[in-house]
């Protein structure tokens, strides 16, 4: 399966997208959709630098895409400037030129992800209003055609996972050419590209990814379970009223109030009919391509999209590698060993020197508008201390330097070959291996409280049925007898210090496997003697206050395994914010460091903790926390009483 992904997002900007979403809120349908697009693109960037993303904006007064390039638009910066001018009140002139292919569409090219794309998408706004929205072309079918052609031009013959994600409320009129749409869907099926529709305010949703499509009937005219699902080629236009609606326009003379009410009812019915027919059209498109339709229904749009495109940035896949499994003397099979848990650390910063124009003093930028920098390195030099004090800089040559460990107040020199000899003494063999020394009672090992992490998963060999059968049979036997294996594990190639641990039998949906957990050596266990604590002599009210506080802070039932690390979340949010806002600026680069107020301003919108459970519990327990502070008021300690005390000291 291909590792690279190519995703084209289609963003609807019809005036109805400016409606508050959810109701009575400051955010709009368009603002939430833009946030979902930006975060999805940023997540693709975190996952791999080879992923490619593009975006097509519907219902714009400007036409700029690979099938109809407009002069004067060079890059995403110019497109972002166009949307900023519209947001400031610039009037949009709708281009009705019949020679333009698919007018009123703006495309951000499908390519490697750059900060300019995020900045430009953040400025996207609705360029039409009620007066010209109906005559403006560039509906969702036109955007789908342009997106499909962009994917074909960019990824044809290459190994990509392709997706088209459409954000729309489906409240504008759509003109469909059945034969043209059929050809586009056939092409998407050949490219194995699924269409994901995020329907804002939709009533129904369905996932067609698990439905097998017939290779002989890949057209759009396939039977559906719903009898009232119209075929796309039958939906020619949404602007023609039916005969019943035409008859309903005939009103009695002088009946003004009834006429106004009937007009409002007809307008409301017409909008509902348009949205209903568009939903059926999008449902049939998603079914044909094996995609899905996601209904928001007041939920956060970004959360709705993550049900189909979950955020995977910062996660590490388990790296399985082959190793030898010594079950008993003269009994060895090849298995795969994978670490199940691993600590994640923030990536280190990359230092670079900014290039300046020697004449103007401005920072140089490349054709994409990014700063031109040079890589920097760190050079450490060592000098003889006695001669350096005398003013003589005599550098110590490399062959005269040595590494040392601090021991007491002295330094003990140790060579690299000495450390390598320690590992070589425990090598045993030149390969990674796991060896069963004996068996212990499961309850004895669990009750000892000596189990350590991380955990390793042991499964059968990739191409060996005998190995998989041996691992499964051993796991079943250990489970039935209540035993665990006492093992010796060598993790590194060419030997290395071994570790000991327990091998537990595990059962999952995929079958039986083994799980290795490390046990400490005798020198790793330290025993601490705790002093006796004074008994609590508080009142019943204080005890009850503590119990109420504990009850209010109990975690609710839920899936806490998918809670993201707040540090990584804040880190990614900070980088995306800097990429979109293009800091530091030119005038700030001339100074030795960023001004303090700029640092504080950049840090404020990126809290280190965005743990939703923490916020919910803090709000829930606010009253109990106040009651606890009243029962146990804080007292300021006098200066003469502030002295260091250590655990175990007598009070």
If you had to describe this structure to a student in words, what would you say it looks like?
The chain is of the alpha/beta class and 651 residues long. Among the domains are: 5-306, von Willebrand factor, type A domain (Rossmann fold); 548-641, no CATH class. It has helices spanning 29-47, 76-87, 115-122, 140-155, 178-190, 243-247, 256-289, 301-306, 385-389, 416-425, 442-448, 465-481, 540-552, 566-581, 586-589, 596-603, 612-620, 622-631, and strands at 5-11, 52-57, 106-112, 161-168, 194-199, 206-207, 292-295, 321-328, 331-339, 352-354, 373-375, 404-407, 410-413, 433-441, 452-460, 483-490, 499-508, 511-519. A seven-stranded mixed beta sheet has the order 3-2-1-4-5-7-6, sandwiched between helices. It has a seven-stranded mixed barrel with strand order 8-9-15-18-17-16-14. It has a two-stranded antiparallel ribbon with strand order 10-11. Strand 4 (161-168), helix 5 (178-190) and strand 5 form a beta-alpha-beta unit. The protein is globular. The two termini are 66 Å apart.
